[in-house]
Design a protein that fits this description.
Elements: E1 10-14, H1 19-30, E2 34-39, H2 42-52, E3 58-62, H3 68-82, E4 87-90, H4 106-134, E5 137-142, H5 145-149, H6 155-174, E6 180-187, H7 200-208, H8 218-228, E7 239-243
Parallel strand pairs: 1-2, 1-4, 2-3, 4-5, 5-6, 6-7
Helix pairs in contact: 1-8, 3-4, 4-6
The structure holds NADP nicotinamide-adenine-dinucleotide phosphate.
NADP nicotinamide-adenine-dinucleotide phosphate (NAP) binds near residues 14, 18, 40, 63 and 66.
Amino acid sequence: MNQIDLKSRVAIVTGGARGIGFSIANRLLASGASVALWDIDPNALDQARQQLASSGKVAGIVADVTSTQSVAGATAETIRAFGKIDILVNNAGIAGVNAKVWETDPAEWQRVLNINLTGPFLVCHAVVPKLLENGYGRIVNIASIAGKEGNPNACHYSASKAGMIALAKSLGKELATSNILVNCIAPAVIETDLFKQMTKAHIDYMLSKIPMNRFGKTEEAAALVAWLCSEECSFSTGAVFDLSGGRATY
Ligand code: NAP
């Protein structure tokens, strides 16, 4: 494993109790950062915090990214726990029910957009002022190849991830001279609990598009994110970094 220096940095990882977020938290801790896991399920959060406790300073903070009040409370609690915020990883997200556009319940569309896109907006809205006070920051949005290509039977998910990419591009330009960089990763399919929300046909479709013919690993996402969270990432902002086993062609 490459050594990435995040000593004295404080990171928030939303949706950090499991899957990709958990691996990111683990890698940031291994790099010396203190990590606030924000997640919606207190039990999963507590379990994750206990699993990570031997790796460094970690706090579990119950947060619903769709609630302005909850996000404000979690921001204050993170600062109480660690004194400042340097790094934000917008990772919390859901897949939603797989269906064609005309078969998708409008309420399901709203639910996915609310968690996957409004959530990261609300978290940035609360956290960016703290990064500005700090004079330093790294923000990474966990988008998806679906946001670049549009997956069939996942219009809400694809649109939310395209929105997340655009959010990073806007915010990256707004903060370009503030020593706060904002980037996205766009993974293809990675095996996590998210699979439980998808049909087998949808998972098979996504795998069939990957030239390496395998799923990505959560640790592979964490490795890229750790570098994007570091000072060594210094001339990239508003950018999208692929992690797709060769699927991405642009
Ligand atoms: P996961 O295992 O389901 O983890 C997502 C976490 O986010 C869960 O702990 C979940 O809690 C939490 N969460 C959901 N709604 C939340 C809310 N409103 N507020 C706070 N936390 C919330 O999924 P994953 O596969 O690791 O995915 C992580 C991110 O990577 C997502 O944004 C996903 O879209 C993206 N991504 C995943 C893949 C893939 O193939 N896995 C590919 C590309 C991008 P509960 O489980 O308790 O609801």
